[in-house]
Amino acid sequence: MKNITFALIAAITFLASCSGNGDKPATTETVEPEIQKKDTLIAIQDCQHKMPTYIFAGQNDKLLHEILPDDYIDNSINVFLLERGDKNILFDAGLGTSQNGRLLEKLDSIGLQPDEITDICITHFHGDHIGGLLTADGEAVFKNAKLHFSDMELEIWTVGVLKDNETVDKMLKAYDGRYETFHAGDTIIDGIVTIAAYGHTPGHTMYDIGETLIVGDIMHAIDLQIEHPEISAIYDFNPVEARETRISVLETARKNHKPMAGMHFPAPHIIKL
Ligand SMILES: [Zn+2]
Prior knowledge:
By secondary structure, this protein is of the alpha/beta class. It is 22% helix and 27% strand. It has a single domain (4-271), classed as Ribonuclease Z/Hydroxyacylglutathione hydrolase-like (Metallo-beta-lactamase, Chain A).
């Protein structure tokens, strides 16, 4: 922990599932209430979906059937909002309203409009993470926000093997002049440390906000992969690298007692090992 006064997260508010009718936060849970509030990290479920368990097949199928016996598991697409000082920082942006993502209505339910988002830290360029940056017409949803993403991720999706992706190209056009790249390891926006977490995509990045790690897509099924981090999903671009990253991140989180906020973790979306 770099600076204890700025590293404390006083309150973590969990917003209701996007499939429910309630637009207000369903549950409020206060963590470490004796600590003076410095940052607020809010987990927002953009959408819930059924994820097929065959994405883990072919590695240890006996174990897979024991732990995940059904064809599908309930999964989640999450976005995290960090309120730090005068900044409203999003981590990823979910699927987008045109894909039934509910980020914007949930932000509205806590009194925050898209124009009030100051920064958006992107873990990687998959559509369920950047789709929410764009309207159905390809315009920027967040008119005052600066995007932050890794130089490696930008390179692979623009001149590397993943180039010519429609959503990525639209994002870069819509936010032209309003994005900044970092090199993994750099510190950005008021002390957020960027960490290489390669494998899921070649430039997949985690963020250490002080008290919590925003871990992106290092795991797609926590029931399986916390105990068996050696198992990768077919969504992982480089399954071997993803496995090494997952093992190392879990070790770090355990050793440092750091909660992990995951973009596909089920409610409450932030876990502590
Ligand atoms: Zn994802």
